[in-house]
Amino acid sequence: MIKAAHLVKKFGSSTAVNSISFDVKEGENLILLGTSGCGKTTTLRMVNRLTEPDSGTIFLNGTDIRSQQPETLRRGIGYVLQNHGLFPHYTVAENIAIVPRLLKWESSKTGKRADELFEKLNLDPAIKDKYPAALSGGQQQRVGLARSLMVNPPVLLMDEPFGALDNLTRISIRKEFRVLDELVKKTIIMVTHDVQEAFEMGDRICLMDKGEIMQIGTPEDLLFRPANNFVANFLDEQRLQLELKSVLLEEILPGSAKNISVWDQMESLLQVNAYPDDAPGDALTIESLMAAFSKYKKR
Ligand SMILES: Nc1ncnc2c1ncn2[C@@H]1O[C@H](COP(=O)(O)OP(=O)(O)OP(=O)(O)O)[C@@H](O)[C@H]1O
Question: Domain ABC transporter spans what residues (predicted)?
Answer without folding.
Answer: 2-235
